[in-house]
Predict the structure.
Amino acid sequence: MKIALESLGCSKNLVDAEIMLGMLNKDGHQLVGDCEDADVVIVNTCGFIEDAKQESIDSIVRYAELKNEGIIKYLLVSGCLAQRYTEELLESVPEIDAIVGTGSYDKITEIVDKLPKDEEKLVQLDDINFSFNENLPRYISTPPYLAYLKIGEGCDNNCTYCIIPKLRGKYRSREKEELLKEAKGLKESGVKELIVIAQDTTVYGKDLYGKDCLAQLLEELAKLDFDWIRVLYSYPEGISEEVVDVIAKYDNICSYFDIPMQHASNRILKLMNRKTSREELKQKVEMIRSKIKDAVIRTTFIVGFPGETDEDFEELMSFVEEMKFDRMGAFKYSREEGTAADLLPNHIDEELKKERLERLMILQQGISEEKNQSNVGKIIKVLIEDRIDDTLFIGRSQKDAEEIDSVVYVETEKNLDIGEMIDVKIDIAYEYDLKGKPLV
């Protein structure tokens, strides 16, 4: 059958989707890019916060309409939302033919092969604490110059606002030998940027080897000669001097630290069950910057957590102003049933959450513009990712992760190739983005 898949949410979810595509492709099904050309559409959903859930629901409903119109034959729903709201989805969207849980994506070919035969709804919800099957094929859906390396599954941090441990299970690391084998294959296929991901990359190896092994893994990956290696989702308490020293040692490991801090009020951090404090967060940032002068620190914060007072929020604002993060994202607290935070008193009004979010982002906008101005006149290496018109291209520097950060506009009469890396002299700095011309 012709199969199309839409994967929503994080890059970790995308890797699951790529394994499903690999299995279906190996089983003889035809993968298509346009859902309207497909017999089967799979929606790989996200269930992290309200906005992500709504995006997933909207997609499911859109494909349900295509099924009713006779354009597609079957609709499958997989991923976190499917795991969390199985019965509700089947009841509210009767067009759904099958539900595939987070621990069941390796059964996708069996489920698809049953579709023409079974009139009943198919539900596959296996153990979320599954062991990795390293022999599953993977169909890389990202651009050929970029790929994700998922080093672990699940999470043990149990932050009070987060449902992920209940949907993804306990933290399980993959064997280092298997990761290096996969990374070598990606390098041989032409991947230039390898992005290391997990729910928390800093605890990699602790369950397998009895200690955190991210530094040793990065050292081995660096020797494979990728142009860039980028590490995402690093909890602050796990960023050791050993990890920072390895990143400083190798030019091809991006000096880019993606550190979800979530707040700066010690009282709120404790309510969130975060294992750190404002003082420790500051020390961590200072340690990184002392070892790597051009380090880029990206973080995320939650505003409007239950019980967040004006004083708590002002602590967060002053912390952001003091730390001057290179990149920062923020989102409103999303009330999620089944989490400890949902049971807390003093939930914040939506309007107040919105107001606080706007204030925080305006503050960061000014910091970002100030930092960007310091790049004018500098020469930076840019990975070309898209072409806007005859003379304008879009790319990224080492300082920017795909899709979540800023871009560099490159103006030139030359014909640049997508995936090409070039040196660009920066002429103009905007609030978030940069613009420049190639050196040659």
The chain has a mean pLDDT of 96.
